[in-house]
Design a protein that fits this description.
Helix content: 40-55%
Number of helices: 10
Low-confidence stretches: none
Order of helices and strands: HEHEHEHEHEHEHHHH
Strand content: 5-15%
Oligomer: single chain
Number of strands: 6
Mean pLDDT: 95
Largest sheet: 6 strands, parallel
Radius of gyration: 18 Å
Distance between the termini: 21 Å
Structural class: alpha/beta
Length: 239
Amino acid sequence: IDVYDKLNQTYQEAKVIETYGNIIRGNEIGSGRALNQLPDADLMDLKLFVEYSKKKNIEFNYTLNATTMRNQEFTRGGILRYKRFLGDLYNAGVRSLTVALPSLLEIVQSTGYDFEIKASTLCQITNVNKAIAYKQKGFNRIVVDESINRDVRNLRRIREEFGDGVELIVNPICLKDCVYRMFHYNEITEDSLGATNDVSVNFYEHRCVLQRFGKVSNLLRMCFVRPEDLKYYNQIGIH
């Protein structure tokens, strides 16, 4: 946070306005990161981090972008457990969430907490119809699917219909239109809550890597955005 703050003071025209992540000790809802990719943190660590971050004018977004909850969100016990956890997050100072499952969105909305809710890139928002649907459901922001990063005409239409809250990930490392993608998300969700092992965390990741490097042109087809091209996204209203 101190480094980001120093950067923000140096570069007034392009600032780090938010970080994101989730705890692993006491976590009740999965995310898009496996345990072995996350720091060892609990609710108290989160509270201290959010407080310090906000002092530096940097917001925090808590990632609840699980792609499966094993249908526990449809049980009375599961709903009560998740509501308690959302209350814990709110008391820790969290005011922004990234969500993937529409079922979890309804649980969040039923708590009455004034969370700002972002639709994860895991929602695979690839067109205007999907963007409008998420807007109607009450999402404040959407992160579009990485596969459309270079489809500027499509992005312009999404921005026109959804409004100012359209985001994209500029540095994806995944193979474009990878057939393993959705199944990889499900694996990561499971490994974000339980003990990971080399088989689960490497299975889809290695198969994606093999496709990327099996043909050198696949590296160029990946959906990263060149820094010198950011101006074209700014021109259509994505900042």
